[in-house]
Design brief:
The complex is a heterodimer of chains A (121) and B (109). Chain A is an all-beta fold and 121 residues long. Chain A has strands at 3-7, 10-12, 18-25, 34-39, 45-51, 58-60, 68-73, 78-83, 92-99, 108-111, 115-119. In chain A, the strands form two sheets. In chain A, strands 2, 4, 5, 6, 9, 10 and 11 form a seven-stranded mixed beta sheet that branches. Chain A has a four-stranded antiparallel beta sheet with strand order 1-3-8-7, with no helix packed on it. In chain A, a hairpin with a 5-residue loop joins β4 and β5 (45-51). The radius of gyration of chain A is 13 Å and the shape is globular. The mean pLDDT of chain A is 96. By secondary structure, chain B is mainly β. In chain B, 0% of the residues lie in helices and 44% in strands. The N and C termini of chain B lie far apart (27 Å). Classes of the chains: A mainly beta (121), B mainly beta (109). Chains A and B meet through β5 and β10 of A and β3, β4, β7 and β8 of B.
């Protein structure tokens, strides 16, 4: 059974750093593209970042490019999002999601429950 | 301001049919697949439609997707109160080299 469980959210200060994780089970992260999608309180979905199955291709939303880094750990089958230079507007629930396709073009068919990041002084 | 534009809300009576539009451009919807997601209150989104008009297993055929030019449409027939949710379209944007979501549409049944 495919499962995704995010962790690592919490309270961070503006300008600070945090890493959120997504433990995957029931499939290998190296077989599918993966994305991070966030949702600010009471707002819509915002795609944040994605990585192809090979890991050769990574993509970022303009709002996080240069500040966030997506990566994976094969031994732990875990996806990460390293966030630097945090801003108040980064406050959101962060979801990891699995694509149906290796390249990331067939829709996100499994989602984790999300982890909440609050950025505030 | 989302790259893909959806109406903030739509409503229809139980048993009726509703459509939700998603307007984009030549760099996203016109040249790429569209996905649709349903998000029930307090839950993670669920994939309803992928590759513009395909349904994942388990999604009833009451849900359908289509596109024409730079716009895509989600159709829902036989509306049920359980369909009350927020619906989002998504597509790859070739100019931005990024995936983009619509702002979401709240469906009231």
């Amino acid at each position: 059974e495919v499962q995704l469980v995010e962790s690592g959210g919490g309270l961070a200060q503006p300008g600070g750093s945090l890493r959120v994780s997504c433990a995957a089970s029931g499939f290998s992260l190296w077989d599918y593209a993966m994305s991070w999608v966030r949702q600010a309180p009471g707002k819509g979905l915002e795609w944040v970042s994605a990585i192809s199955g090979s890991g050769d291709h990574t993509y970022y939303a303009a709002s996080v490019k240069g500040r966030f880094t997506i990566s994976r750990d094969k031994s732990k089958n875990t996806l990460y999002l390293q966030m630097e230079g945090l801003r108040v507007e980064d406050t959101a629930i962060y979801y990891c999601a699995k694509d149906q396709n290796y390249y990331g073009s067939e829709g996100l068919d499994y989602w984790g429950p999300g982890t909440l990041l609050s950025v505030s002084s | 301001q989302s790259v893909l534009t959806q109406p903030p809300s739509v409503s229809a009576a139980p048993g009726q049919r509703v459509t939700i539009s998603c307007s984009g451009s030549s760099s996203n919807i016109e040249d790429n697949y569209v996905s649709w997601y349903q998000q029930l209150p307090g839950t993670a989104p669920q994939l309803l439609i992928y590759e513009t008009n395909k349904r994942p297993s388990g999604i009833p055929d009451r849900f359908s997707g289509s596109k024409s030019g730079t716009s895509a449409t989600l159709g829902i027939t036989g509306l049920q109160t359980g369909d009350e949710a927020n619906y989002y379209c998504e597509s790859w944007d070739s100019s931005l080299t990024a995936w983009v979501f619509g702002g979401g549409t709240k469906l009231t049944v």
